[in-house]
Design goal:
Layout lengths: L1 H4 L3 H13 L1 H8 L5 H20 L2 H10 L1 H23 L4 H8 L2 H12 L7 H24 L6 H24 L6 H24 L8 H25 L6 H5 L4 H13 L7 H28 L4
Helix pairs in contact: 2-12, 2-14, 3-7, 3-12, 4-6, 4-11, 4-12, 6-10, 6-11, 7-14, 8-10, 9-15, 11-12
């Protein structure tokens, strides 16, 4: 049963989203010591190297990259360079919990992009209802920050950058889903993270500068965790996107878990971040969107206890 559980698409999607939900608190901690673009580039370059070493078959690895170099570069640009430029620049301007909640609107962009670019992945009433519930939760949370006067003066810019991150995320999901290339998920993940991370790091140098200095344990602990979760989470997600019968829209609805757990971890780990009534209500609405879209699958799985 344990083996079946770790092969189940819904279970693996949940684990991946829980890993991603830790990135907000981890990134906010690391950005106290390193500029956002430089941190992103350093993080993903190291994550790519970790996966390369994990894969191990170096001759086969580079042969696959050479064969699919155009596709790999395109994914590296969308998924690492572009998406995470927006993510880290935006997260640097908003609290970690708010960043997690805005990223929670990501499935909306994935569903909309899939609706227009994937023939057999159209929106239906259940997807539409659940997605608008998720967006309503995000709006409630942001409205509460605005009327309470706690929103920073650059917060709206940060929100816009995180929305652009979501749009880039929807695009790379569709690109990978529509690809019929025989490239292992670990190789694609490693190459896209490593190449995109290196490009992002080099891009950051004339903008943010570079300074060699001693970093405290807090930075290295957060950085090590960020690298690990990137390597594991993207490998799982790429593999799920290539599974037969998987729809981009349905798979991405699990990402509504990210703002809930990401916000909770940020409130717990980051000083001066705390929940309020609007945040709690918004998170409850976001959680309800998952049930609306996936209630049949969730209830069936738990009723039978057979995760096949």
């Amino acid at each position: 049963m344990v083996k079946q559980l770790f092969r189940n698409t819904a279970f693996l999607a949940i684990i991946t989203c829980l890993l991603w939900s830790t990135a907000f608190a981890g990134s906010k901690i690391a950005m106290k010591y390193m500029p956002p673009l430089q941190l992103a580039g350093f993080r993903f370059f190291v994550s790519g190297l970790i996966l390369l070493l994990w894969f191990g078959k170096f001759r086969s690895y580079f042969s696959i990259i050479k064969k699919h170099i155009g596709f790999v570069l395109w994914v590296a640009f969308l998924q690492t360079f572009l998406m995470y430029s927006f993510f880290y620049l935006g997260l640097n301007l908003v609290p970690g919990a708010l960043g997690a909640m805005i990223i929670g609107s990501g499935p909306l962009f994935a569903v909309l992009v899939a609706h227009f670019f994937i023939r057999d992945d159209k929106m239906n009433w259940k997807l539409t209802t659940g997605l608008f519930l998720g967006i309503a939760g995000i709006i409630i949370i942001n409205y509460g920050r605005q009327i309470s006067g706690i929103a920073g003066h650059l917060e709206l810019l940060g929100v816009l950058l995180l929305i652009l991150n979501n749009l880039a995320g929807g695009a790379y999901n569709v690109v990978i889903y529509k690809s019929n290339r025989e490239i292992p998920a670990m190789v694609l993940s490693s190459a896209s993270l490593g190449i995109g991370g290196l490009g992002l790091f080099l891009f950051s140098l004339p903008i943010e500068g570079f300074q060699i200095k001693a970093y405290p344990f807090e930075f290295w602990a957060a950085f090590a965790w960020l690298c690990m979760l990137s390597a594991v989470a993207f490998s799982i997600w790429f593999a799920l996107l290539k599974r037969p019968g998987i729809k981009v829209s349905t798979l991405n609805t699990w990402k509504f878990l990210i703002p809930v757990f990401g916000a909770i971890l940020s409130w717990w780990l980051i000083p001066n971040e705390y929940p309020d009534t609007y945040s709690i209500v918004g998170m409850a609405v976001i959680a309800s969107s998952i049930l609306v879209i996936n209630h049949e699958t969730i209830f069936q799985k738990f009723k039978s206890l057979n995760f096949s």
